[in-house]
Amino acid sequence: MANNVKKTPNINAKGGGKKKEVKKETGLGLSYKKDENFGEWYSEVVVNSEMIEYYDISGCYILRPWTMSVWEIMQAFFDAEIKKMKIKNCYFPLFVSPGVLQREKDHIEGFAPEVAWVTKSGSSDLEIPIAIRPTSETVMYPYYSKWIRGHRDLPLKLNQWCNVVRWEFSNPTPFIRSREFLWQEGHTAFATKEEADVEVLEILELYKRIYEEYLAIPVVKGKKSELEKFAGGLYTTSVEAFIPNTGRGIQGATSHCLGQNFAKMFEINFENEKGERAMAWQNSWAYSTRTIGVMVMVHGDDKGLVLPPKVASVQVIVIPVPYKDADTKAIFDACSTTVNMLTESGFRVEADLRDNYSPGWKYSHWEMKGVPLRIEIGPKDVAKSQVRVVRRDNFAKIDIPTSTLVEEVKDILVNIHQSLFDAAKQKRDECIKVVHTWDEFVEALNQKSLILAPWCDEEDVEKDVKARTKGDMGAAKTLCSPLDQPELPEGTLCFASGKPAKKWTYWGRSY
What we know:
By secondary structure, the protein is an alpha+beta fold.
């Protein structure tokens, strides 16, 4: 039961006023407010909403059904879309031999501190330690060189849905930074750079659609700096989200053009149409369960989780409200009829008919779990052939005749998605500060802003900005240079170096 959920570490039940009443009545209120202690609020929400459970290994989390259903809905969308692009699913082993891992030194250097190693079998030491994949380039590409011989073998377009392990020790956070997480990783090989370039942006658009059409989160499509790009790749594109409460950017998903670097290392060569030897051009791209954490952070409130309707495993919860001496059977029958009618129309609906909890407790429980729409049915509703509908996003209440319920629920769910997206976009846009000088940059950074600044695009300057902004909150860095570039007037200077600016770039602190 939700009111018996094991509390997350370091959470104590302090709170005042109205919140105490809720806790007294239902045992379900949150101890922390989103605006006052974001970190503790987030930890509490993901546990109390039954999304995750803490595990006995730090940085590892149990993903409960409430989370997996969100993941499966996004997975169904993305999997169908990549199949339209003739990308096929496969599966490669979890383990990597050290020899293969070391072949691509630049690439693995970026992951080296996070690679977990298997060194024992039972009580015996392994003759050669085995790595657990932090990502699968070095796992897959030795076999690409075996399978790709001539131009007719291209393009080779594979994807796998799997887990990866990155043994990070700094600030593990459910969904956002964990030692094991679920993701998809696509790995494709082409005869030409042009084909690779086209796919990078096609995949990036799918990632944008996941965030905006499913999670109701606005993102910026952009290109990473040389310093922030994928180690060993040619260039990296990403979708970037922003968390206004913490003033931090968050990399939402990445689509990389790897160029020919891995083809060179793993000898992925082919005979082209002219009979000449050529090297393949490669891409890799991934999004992970981090997406779910971003959703919680952006939309959640002081009553708990707020789920966008498209990814909610339960879109509508139906709750009977029997008053004293009411005809309970008639109310329960009306609940069942409502569930069946909405289910047949394609909605994901459940009724909470448990008789050991009050309607008030159930309201709090399903609000905590973020269900987009609540339908209440009491004796007056039965008499009038209507139901009361309550939205989770703004708690607006409306009485709807049973005869028009299906159409109205459909419209309300569409409206909830749009309202969540619009509110998130407004909050993010209010945080965007355009700066031209170093002083403006520092001021904006201290105000937890998402900073858009003209930049000379030099690595040394970016390193210098990181060094000069290092502090307890973490250093500022480039998040991305938006693909949709604002106009850069001639003579515009870099905010940090005073050299001629080459592009507009988003800067800020990040997760």
